[in-house]
Amino acid sequence: MAGQALRCGLTNLAVVLILFTTMKVRGYNLVARRESEFTFKNDVVVVPMRHRRFVNNDVIAPPANIVKMNIDSRTSSRYTQVLVESVVMNDQMESREAKFIVQIPETAFISNFSMLINDTWFIADVMNKSAAEQVYKDAQSKGESAGHVGTDTYTPSPRGMENFKISINVAAESEVEFKLLYSELLERRLGVYRQRISIRPGQTVENLTLSAQLYEPQGFASFKFSPPGESTLLESSRTPDVQLTASDTFKSVAYTMSIAAQRKLDAEKGSDGEFIIEYDVRRENEESRGGVLLVDSGYFVHYIAPSDPNLVTLNKNVAFVIDVSGSMSGEKIIQTRQAMKTILSQLRPDDYFNILLFSSNVRSWEPRPIRGSAENIARAKRFVDDHVKADGGTNIDAALREAGNSLSQLMTGLSERRGRMIVFLTDGMPSVGETNTVKIRKNVRTWNIESKLPIFSLGFGMGVSIDFLQQLSWENLGFARQIYEDTDGVSQLSNFFTEIESVILLDIHVTYDTDAVEVATLTSTTFPQYFKGSEIIVAGEITPSAPQSWSAQVSASGKTDVVNYNIPVTGQNTYDTNVAPWSAGFAEKLRAYLKIKDLIREMSIAPNKTVEAALEQEAIALSLRYNFVTPVTSMVITQSSRSVENELSRDMAISAIVGSSLGKASSIGVPSMVLLYLTSLLTVLLSSAGSLITFLTL
User: Which of 54, 119, 151, 693 qualifies as a FRET site for 464, CA 20 to 30 Å off?
Assistant: First the structure.
């Protein structure tokens, strides 16, 4: 009955959903080919249709009910795949809107998306941009027009998450099933891995469950979790809602959220929180001093987090470059002042530091960095209280140049190996002096070519260009981070410095026996510094003729000596697929994930168009091979290409969606670089009659 009603409502439905990605645009923005055909109503793009049935617009019907939401998370050595399944039922006698909303971590790839409509699975494919654009043009030339397409830029996403939303009109007495699979590499910060699984369906759900299974061959050193609404991380289950099964290398958490528990968090929206998993792995073995190398089906992943007790924290030279322009006024300048005093208290007596404040001009606390003695720290805090006040423009170019000069002078006077860094905080774009960000980056590269000072950039608020800060930091051996305007701004700033303030190693180089590893397949193998509590990861492909035993070498500079580690490797797999069947093939997917990220980063800072084009071609080839949506490829959903209508084909399609129990590489992804700080919602409304073409830019 339900399937028949839906077939009547969606006769001759053709869907073409194209997600295009760029390096610069954040959010989902409609790209209209014939703008005269589009009108705007309530911030939603409305396109005329050839056939259209209207429901009485004077009465807004409530949305269809989500009757089931199941979340299945599988983790193999930090690499996580999360499958979100939702069933939406319309039990009324008229059509209703159904919504599928998922919050995805900024660092994740969307690996697959599919919809079951009219007993037909619509499954995502991937194409390069030119091919996908041609699909759009061909469909448009046939007279197919869009139903109801738009973006919602007003709905905020949770911090560090991106909103993915699909809205579809469901025929009377019918249901629609959605599946979304995303992949994420858990990052180690301050000694722990942290996974956030959003559970925010937007309404109470009768059947709401989560299953999380984690396999770590090194063994778990710690494991904690917290369901939505729980402020404390738990080591064991306190309620029947959560069931924990554990061994040395395997953890399984099963969580069922009752209607009562959902309403306790929000009477209308139900669950509005996250399931948090936090853990670390064991590293006490002798060989783990140079990392642990895991082999899986012809590929390897090398995790480097030295546990050598002989390694000590290096003293460091640091310049704090702080924006005090007029736009920093209000709560931001207050929090910056408080955070700076907290950070100053973390400096060690043998650290050297300086503070440079900039607005229209640059004001330096001292001519050059000085020791972090108790007396100097106290003086610096008074300087912060007296002078960290917002006024004037934003002269980024002059501030960074003066900070570089200050640290470079100090480096010539100190013989010991030391950590070195510029910590750069701003909330906006340059408005004084050099205002062209490309020229600013070029200027910084010029004066920093010999000093090689890492620059760590913090973008305070949403008015800053995170792209500019990322490129600036990537070109100068650092990275960028968003700081959100919120009540915890002080802890965000101080926690960031805590991550990078303990430098253990400098100039890390990782090499492998060339007769065992395909060198061209390796991800990044050189790193400027290693911070306590973090982790370095290298992945690659093993040659078909690799010897049974081979080795990896890690060399770096410690505080007083050059450090060398040799890690022996055996050719056999290091994964027990009986414990974690989904772990098969994980190393190949993880290598592709990391390699594409490397290529996209290198593209963004390429010295010329020729180099950029070569990197782009390599990124396209790898993205297409693994069906990842990246800034150089596009996701396309078409009924004709991969739809199925019989049960056998349906099972095969589901297997493709979940990648053979979340194992095999059969996915479409959006990397973290593309999904950074996305705050808009993708909304696609399929009309109950007619056909749809959607052309979107990410």
Answer: 151
Within 13 Å, how many C-alpha atoms sit on residue 2's CB side?
14
Per-residue pLDDT tens digits for 479-514? 999 999 999 999 999 999 999 999 999 999 999 999
Instruction: Give the DSSP per-residue string, 429-478.
Output: ---SS---HHHHHHHHHHHHTTT---EEEEEESSSS-HHHHHHHHHTTT-
- Are 340 and 320 contacting, i.e. CB atoms less than 8 angstroms apart? yes
Cα 427 to Cα 355: distance, rounded to the nearest angstrom = 17
Asked if 487 and 473 touch (Cβ cutoff 8 Å), the reply is no
Residue 129: predicted pLDDT: 75
Q: Which CATH superfamily is domain 316-501 in?
A: von Willebrand factor, type A domain (3.40.50.410)
Q: Which residue has the tokens 């998922």?
A: 102
Domain map of the chain by residue range? 2-192+629-697, 295-307+507-562+573-621, 316-501
- 538: which strand partners? 302
Rg over alpha carbons for the chain, rounded to the nearest Å, is 27
**CB contact at 8 A, 603 and 619:** yes
User: How many CB atoms within 10 Å of residue 329?
Assistant: 14
Extended beta strands in 217-329, E state: 220-226, 242-246, 250-256, 273-281, 292-296, 299-304, 316-323
Return d(Cα 556, Cα 528) in angstroms, integer: 9
Parts of the chain with a pLDDT under 70: 1-62, 133, 135-155, 285-288, 411-415, 571-572, 635-698
pTM here? 0.83
Provide CB contacts within 8 A for 267, sequence distance 6+.
Answer: none
What DSSP assignment string belongs to 139-180? HHHTT---SEEEEE-SSPPPTTEEEEEEEEEE-TTEEEEEEE
Q: What is the longest distance spanned by two Cα atoms in the chain?
A: 82
Length of the chain, in residues: 698
619 φ/ψ angles, rounded to the nearest 5 degrees: -65, -40
DSSP-derived 3-state class of residue 287: helix
- Is residue 244 packed enough to be buried (19+ CB in 10 Å), middle (13-18) or exposed (0-12)? middle
Structure-token match 């019907």, residue found = 61
- Give me the half-sphere count of Cα atoms (radius 13 Å) on the Cβ side of residue 504: 21
Residue 230's CB is within 10 A of a number of other CB atoms, namely: 15
Which residues, other chains included, contact 621 with Cβ-Cβ below 8 Å and sequence gap of 6+? Answer: none
